[in-house]
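DATA CLASS: polypeptide
GOAL: derive structure tokens

***
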Amino acid sequence: MYGHDLPRLHDALKEVQTSMFRSKLKELADRSLMRRLSPLESGTGPIIQYAGREVILLSSNDYLGLATHPEIISAAIHATEQYGTGSGASRLVSGTLPPHMRLETSLATFKGTAAALLFGAGYLANIGVIPNLIGQGGLILADRLCHASLIDGCRLSQADFRIFRHRDCTHLESLLRRRSTNRPTLIITEGLFSMDGDLAPLSDLVSLAERYEATLYVDDAHGTGIMGPTGRGTVEHFGLEQRIPFHMGTLSKALGSHGAYIVGPNDLIQYLVNVARPFIFTTALPPAVAAAAATAVAVIQREPERRTRLWSNRQRLFNGMQKLGFRMTPTVSPILPILVGDAAVTSALADRLLTHGIYVSAIRPPTVPDGTSRIRFTVTSEHTTEQIDEALHALDLAGRETGLL
């Protein structure tokens, strides 16, 4: 091959790649599974600016409205002024700053554990922790509806991986009975399931883990801040804090910030500092993010009325959806999914709702299993009753326009 042929070869290869990308995108579009970014023109809140107009946002995980809390914003600004916009390095190099230490102390105290460790995101926490709890030769049993980050953590562990039917402890026990004696086993579940809004049967899961000498790993990303008498999460909700010694959670939902954490015994935390690759090889959270989250932990404890408003709003929206006659998941939380099934109809319903001033997302495969596409509503403490009633009116109109009602 001569040098003057290389540009033509490069162009030919680029055209093959481009053709492949276009083909894949067309396939997604034909199945109504195409995803596009939808930039907002304002921060998260009950009312947002989108496409040049005001609409009601009902798809944010900012359950307690803390992302725009003045005290939390002030904490982030102060930390930025004092420490800069970035941490500069990973925690083990030079990236550990006072806001990180304060947040870990606050989380451990709030959760009633000896220690805590921060991660850059929930995804990083799960793929960092799970492979260091179990490895090749071990067995992982995970709930069928576990989040993608949990599934990827399972795969990275190189342990044998099996799923049990959603919330089905009878199925789980049958898998536990069939395993080899003394085989290391990890049971994995979400505390509050993000796409269905239902709770894991943690009491039964703990009992099975104890009976069969397995370890239980709980991802409480959506439970932290809203579940339990004091908002400590799903583990508190079931009164299992003494029987579940460690769990994972995020700072990006009810805490209104970003990142994730593991809380638990000091030995576990120090072990993860030394072996968890997403912790070791990732630049530390920006100081503003850590300071905001630490302040959010304090606000959650000081302003329980936010949880009261959240649950009141949840019940109002849930009752209205049921009265309209929509098919829903067995949700017991502020996550209120309307089951549609067909991806194209789901997208059409989301589009009609937006036309009527309600911004919600169409959740389709692979986020949820085939045939279970849905509109996932999430209500917050900051929505007004008038906004909830407006959303219900829009749902009535959109449901009729799409033939669902």
